[in-house]
Amino acid sequence: MIIANNVSKRFSKLQALNNVSVTCNRGECIALIGPNGSGKTTFIKSILGMVVPDSGFITFNGKNISHDWLYREQIGYMPQIGNYPEQMTIGQLFGMIKDIRKNKSNTNCDEELITAFGLDQLMHKRMRTLSGGTRQKVSAALAFLFNPAVLILDEPTAGLDPVASEILKEKIINEKQKGKLILITSHILSELDGLVTQVIYMQDGSLVFHKTIENLRKDTGEEKLAKAIASVMQKK
Amino acid sequence: MKKITKYVIADILRNKIVIGYTAFLLVISLSVFNLEDNSTKGLLSLLNIILIIVPLVCIIFSTIYIYNSSEFVELLVSQPLHRRNIWISLFTGLVSSLAFAFFAGVGIPIILYAPSATGMIMLAMGLILSVIFVAIAMLAAVITRDKAKGIGISILLWLYFSLLFDGIVLFLLFQFQDYPLEKAMVVVSAFNPIDLGRILILLKMDISALMGYTGAIFKDFFGTGLGFSISLAILFLWMIIPTWLSLRKFNKKDL
């Protein structure tokens, strides 16, 4: 569904992505793992077209994304740091995004998370006044709002309270069972156990491996994802 | 695209600066026309205000607005929207609100007090300068990520167009006063939209005689239909080129 081909990106001195090639298919739940600054977010942003790669290309359903923008209709993106217009209220924000993305194919919005997070009680609050966790909730609700075929979640549970992060995890599992492609980055590896089917490990902008979780377990002899990754990191 | 423009305009109206700008222009133009019994004198006083205040407000407000809406742009870029549409919508939103402010603040008094050809030219120049300086502001804002730097560039550009350029031209004129530079001056004026606007307005006022021999040359060139069309075309280029450059830059920008 998403194919990245030798994608490279350099930010002045920093090589953020170095010849990354990845294939992601429908129905998979892929964890993007790597140390801080290993290029995970840059990779995600290149899939979204927010970062333009220096070389290489990315295709979405067989179409090169560099001249296409409608493919983003099928993506729900939850950013690591949600930057929203400060003076807008939550209600206005949802209204605007719905207005922009409204078309024949997505008339019914998935507002499950809005109610589950209790955001419907906060609709009149301005974005400026929100706490970091509430912002995360807004980001999550926006990502799931249009029932997208692909979900890209950048550190979804960072900053969420245990109740909210449990709700979000339930939601992710539900969506995964509907056969959606889910890309997720997280540093809390224990959370990813039982959720992900594949692991992409990145370091210093390069792809180190892309394996199914079974293969990773077999290769490392560890059952838990956290221990498996730790043993990979120690071998380096 | 219309939807985004709508949100941009709603956002600009909400922060009330543009409304203050309209009121300020309205007070100035009404007082200018009421102080002078002769409406041409009123226009002449208004001329300098237009040529200084309008570019300044347009360039500074637009630059700051673009920087402040970086979150808005970031949010939109991750949505199924063409980048070009996002940028053009921002441009359209800024231009329409600032041009409308100018029209309400200066245009309506001109139509009421001095509905002459000079008045109309002045109104048109004010609107054109609004568009040009929004375009330049967008280019300045897209070039650098640093807000202070971007606003600094905008202020410098405004200084250049309103003060420095004239200084440089004067300096050149004095240095090369032994040579016939009158024709060259016509070409040089194309490099500054404010000067071009000023010349077109002054020529319509029939006071070009005050400008001596250069004025006569200017009259020969800009006074004809062809010269007028060429200068309008140049002003049009001043709108298109910065917008096009900023769009190209924005299409490749990492957010």
Number of strands of chain B: 0
Number of helices of chain A: 8
> What do the pLDDT scores of chain A average to?
88
Radius of gyration of chain B: 19 Å
**Whole-angstrom Rg of chain A:** 18 Å
What's the shape of chain A? Answer: globular
- Cα end-to-end separation of chain A: 31 Å
The CATH superfamily of chain A is P-loop containing nucleotide triphosphate hydrolases
Report the portion of residues of chain B in β strands. under 5%
Describe what this molecule looks like in 3D.
Chain A is α/β, with parallel strands linked by helices and 236 residues long. Chain A has a single domain (2-235), classed as P-loop containing nucleotide triphosphate hydrolases (Rossmann fold, 3-Layer(aba) Sandwich). Chain A contains eight helices and ten strands. Chain A has helices at 40-47, 90-101, 112-116, 132-144, 162-177, 189-192, 213-220, 225-235; strands at 2-11, 14-24, 29-33, 55-60, 63-64, 75-78, 150-154, 181-185, 198-203, 206-212. In chain A, the strands form two sheets. A six-stranded mixed β-sheet of chain A has the order 6-7-8-3-9-10, with helices on both faces. In chain A, strands 2-1-4-5 form a four-stranded antiparallel β-sheet, with helices on one face. In chain A, helix 7 packs across helix 8 (225-235). The longest helix of chain A has 16 residues, at 162-177. Chain B is mainly α. Chain B has one domain. Chain B is globular and about 60 Å long.
Could you list some keywords that capture this structure?
heterodimer; A: 236 residues; alpha/beta; Rossmann fold; six-stranded mixed sheet; four-stranded antiparallel sheet; 8 helices; 10 strands; 33% helix; 26% strand; B: 255 residues; mainly alpha; 11 helices; 84% helix; 0% strand
